[in-house]
Write a structure and sequence with these properties.
- The chain has 15 helices and twelve strands.
- It is an alpha/beta fold and 382 residues long.
- The protein folds into two domains: 6-35 and 276-376, Aspartate Aminotransferase, domain 1 (Alpha-Beta Complex); 41-274, Type I PLP-dependent aspartate aminotransferase-like (Major domain) (Aspartate Aminotransferase, domain 2).
- The strands form three sheets. A seven-stranded mixed β-sheet has the order 2-8-7-6-5-3-4, sandwiched between helices.
- The longest helix has 23 residues, at 276-298.
- The structure holds pyridoxal-5'-phosphate (PLP).
- Pyridoxal-5'-phosphate is lined by residues 29, 88-90, 114, 159, 163, 191, 193, 223, 225-226, 231, 236.
Length: 382
């Protein structure tokens, strides 16, 4: 059974627990659970051997291992020859953005969206093309795409499953995206790092499997960083099914992108080949926690929550209640609960929203929910 011990968590120095001492953190997407034993054993064995020299054994197997996992879990067989290694999912995403587009080019995102997608577009001088999803269904439709995506768009930054909404987009929705991608000759970056955390009867649907029109124009991103909480180790795979991008990447000097470390490769290999028993346990806790949040928050006024299709992130909307104005700031400053501020994900439509990370123990989650319920009961006052 996975554990999340408050004493151990309070001693950690990482961003999640180290940045706001004394508060309960449920913001950044790290889990509170003890790491999978297989990962700990792989890293510890290497540390005990003192082996930190040049060693590419695990690195050279990483793309193949990711491809095998896609085939076994999701029924999609990526071509390992199209895989390239990066030191993180965003490293790969930023690289593709810079290599494929010019300043001023339109880059479409499905808002509200994991905020680094927005900041990377702004920081690179590209033009943000918002495709605004609306609740309670958050569906992509051909009409929405026609209204949002203009002729100056060159790239789509897609997220399947979606962070922060937790949606797994279905075949019809993906067919609509494929249609526009083909018609406007767009490249699609499909960030699928949440694909191993899909709940209930739903299944992860890789874009490349959903519609043949994605072939030849899609870069799929994968990593063990979210599923196994290894974000600090730094490794990711980009499956570059866009010939022009592969030619550009392979024509650059060999060390342009650096490489993940041997420790990160050892961690990801252990996760993908020997981590699934731990993942089953962790996933069961996460799924039960999602239902628990809906049950507890469903009993109070002033907040809306729903069970996501995937991820351990929940999108809460405080509209119409006492916390409607900047809920994350109020909960943090006045109640010691740190959520991610909705406005980061969409500055216009999500100011009454906040993202809650439920990858923790039931005990800690209940302390978090107590703070939300108390804040709402008190009309938002501390
Ligand atoms: C959709 C998505 N992509 C990328 C990342 C960051 O991944 P990495 O640390 O591998 O760059 C996150 C982290 O939460 C994420 O949710």
């Amino acid at each position: 059974m996975v554990r999340a011990d408050l004493g151990r968590l309070r001693s950690l120095t990482g961003s999640k627990w180290g940045k706001h001492p004394g508060a309960l953190p449920a913001w950044v997407a790290d889990m509170d659970f003890d790491v999978a034993p297989a990962i700990k054993a792989a890293i510890t064995a290497r540390v005990e051997r003192g082996e930190f020299g040049y060693d590419f054994t695990d690195l050279d197997r990483l793309v193949g291992c990711w491809a095998d996992r896609q085939a076994a879990r999701h029924g999609w067989s990526p071509d390992p020859d199209l895989g390239r290694l990066f030191t993180g999912t965003l490293h790969a995403l930023d690289s593709m953005l810079l290599l494929h587009t010019e300043p001023g080019d339109g880059v479409a995102v499905f808002t509200p969206i994991y905020y680094p997608f927005r900041t990377t577009v702004a920081a690179s001088g590209r033009r943000l093309v918002d495709v605004p999803l609306t609740g309670p269904d958050w569906r992509i439709t051909p009409e929405l795409l026609a209204e949002s995506i203009d002729d100056g768009t060159r790239l789509i930054l897609f997220c399947q499953p979606h962070n922060p909404l937790g949606r797994v987009f279905d075949r019809d929705e993906l067919a609509a995206v494929a249609e526009v991608a083909e018609r406007l000759d767009l490249v699609v970056i499909s960030d699928e790092i949440w694909g191993d955390l899909v709940h209930g009867e739903r299944a992860h649907l890789p874009l490349q499997l959903a519609d043949p029109r994605f072939a030849g124009r899609t870069v799929t991103l994968g990593s063990a960083s979210k599923t196994f909480s290894l974000a600090g180790l730094r490794s990711a795979v980009a499956h570059v099914d866009v010939e022009s991008l592969r030619t550009t990447i392979d024509g650059l000097p060999a060390h342009t992108f650096g490489r993940p470390s041997s420790l990160s490769a050892a961690g990801a290999m252990a996760a993908w080949t020997r981590g699934d028993e731990w993942l089953r346990d962790a996933h069961a806790v996460i799924e039960a926690n999602c239902h628990h949040v809906v049950e507890r928050l469903g009993a109070v006024d002033g907040v809306q929550a729903y069970v996501p299709d995937a991820t351990y992130l929940m999108w809460l909307d405080f509209a119409g209640g006492p916390l409607a104005d900047q809920p994350a700031r109020r909960l943090q400053d006045e109640h010691g609960l740190v959520l991610s501020d909705g406005a980061q994900f969409c500055p216009t439509t999500a100011t009454s929203c906040a993202r809650l990370n439920v990858a923790t123990s039931r005990e800690i989650l209940d302390q978090m929910l107590d703070r939300i319920v108390h804040a709402l009961d008190e009309g938002g006052r501390p």
